[in-house]
Amino acid sequence: MSRRLDEAAVARLAPGLSLALPRVPHRGRVGEVRAASTGSSMELHDFRAYQPGDDLRQLDWNAVARTDELILRVRQDEVSPRVEVVVDASRSMALSERKGACAREVALLVCEVAARQGLSPTLRVAGVRGEQVQGPSCRAALRALEFEARDDLVAALGRMAPPRPCGLRVVVSDFLFEADLAALCARLSRGAAGLFLAQVLDAEDLSPSGGEGARLVDSESGAALEELLTQDVLAAYARRFTEHQRSLRGAALRARGTLLTASAEHPLEALVAGALRPLFVAGGGA
Question: pTM of this prediction?
């Protein structure tokens, strides 16, 4: 069991912060422009692809005719008020006590700041069983969170219901798994006006220490990936890590998202002032 989150640090930081919500409209997939201002609950806000379970009455038949795809009209009340936080609950997120605690703290801070802004935070835990809670229940869910899933975020998302439209989606994960990163980021951005990938990494993720008898092990399966962490193995890991980060950053940008890479070795205050700074702006509301 990894160390619990530092709720005191979250309480100190939240009152002075606001989330960096999308400020400018962006062009949707069928060419319409998202409204920049908020209006009544019936004001048209954007378009998105149909997902199973959606209300067919919201289909835009003109868009369907132009694209040969099922396109829904999304109203203002479906998008603006909601902030969604997705937490990867795979075993790799508890590589160290600090990594697990840091992931919880980042998720809770986003939820707390969202609530102070008058938004509606939703927490989705992508783990052994998909869990979704809202509002004040987010804190209790993060206190109880265990990183137990033996597979990765992609597999866990497949066990969950499709995400609903929201104003901002923040995904907390280490993103250290083999996947089609472009497809993953496109999936994570679906229905969201803004996307942040909050990548929480342990010191050993960033730079394995090696040493006599050390081995590289898959956190989810427990399988040894290399017999020994020789200098050649460590160098190869560094090259693969650099390429992975380049691909992940590019995939996030193509999905209109932002990758934020945070070292769990730093306290939450330092992360907010540094690696996570684009996610927050100073000057929180009461």
Answer: 0.78
